[in-house]
Amino acid sequence: MRDPTDSLFWFASGHTLDPAAAVKAYEPARKAVADPDAGEKFRRGMVRTVIPLARPVELCIEAG
Asked: What is the pTM of this model?
């Protein structure tokens, strides 16, 4: 939440996780993050809730 331009987290396995996409896909978290009246602790809790629900993606980078 500190830097919304940081979108991908890379794992040593080559998989990535996009927490912004996870928040966008889960309506309660999306609403909490967008709500200016929601407290910081609540918004962070909602983001932490969706991270385990996200599906890591394996990136295949082809040499070309």
From this structure: 0.65
